[in-house]
Amino acid sequence: MTLPIFQSATFEWSGTTDYHEIRYGRLSNTPNHVALHDKLADIESAEAALVASSGMAAISTSLLTVLSAGDHLLAQNVLYGGTFDFVTKDLPSWGIEVDLVDGHDPEEWKEKLRPNTRAFYVETISNPLMTVSNLDEAARFAREHNLLSFIDNTFASPINFRPAEHGFDLSLHSATKYLNGHSDLIAGAIIGRREVVDRVKIKLDHLGGSLDPHACFLLNRGLKTLGLRIAYQNASAQALAEALESFDRVRAVHYSGLPGHRDHQTASRLLDGFGGMISFEINGSGAEVQERIDRLTIATDAPSLGGPETLVTIPANTSHAGMTPEERKMSGIAGGLIRVSVGLEGTQDLIDDFRQALS
Q: pTM higher than 0.90 for the full model?
């Protein structure tokens, strides 16, 4: 009933002459890896999956599989800070051109399309402003122009959105977050069309971002409660977002489950749930915003997300600290923006905690 840990890097040779099929820990094909790959593909209705040592290993390896010097990438303009830095700083240094586009504006996509464009990259629910763009249209646009479509599905999880069902070639996750759900491992996941996943595996074999057997065991354990956790976090986040809207000190709440959110209708059509991530803005200096966070007694000031504990963070100081103030301003990330990962605590307890901290 519980997958054992095959704590071995090396396995007896089975006669294969294909380097990438040799049973070896770094080649991501031990029994622990295979069990995870099958399960992850199943829960996203996809053909194949692959685990990696982190979410950024999954993202960087996947993009480097399809992009090389002289190629061009289209990417959504509101991204996780690590992804933003990778596509705007690392890729150009290797001769790969990048244009950031509004995920809501297909006309801009057409304007920025080039003969050497190879891929289109978006996020299901953007980090940290919780926008939900024209995802079906993005997948369709990629198909029509022979681009590979990539989507970071970390914030939504397979419970709320399954990219393969909407035509995306590859879904990427920081499995550290919701897929694992226990704040005790670092991992990534690559899920999608078998032909593309197989190509990414070869690149991952070369770059070495493989996941160790014990982390595979923990991730397999975390997946067992994914549906229950997400259902509770969806409901709790909805209640907290509605409460935050009523607080005098809060000037904006970013959560697509709110009728007033710009993407509420789009999210209602595409998603099976609005997720456990909220961000909101309050007035005040950086020190004043931090003072309010410090008054929280249940929620913890910490980066990351998706675990059983409610976490709060100021993106300008953590997830998006690598961006310049000008880049954050262009992306709409204000200094008074607070991101909340809603955990599994009592919903009313959380609401009361935020109320007293912001009163």
A: yes
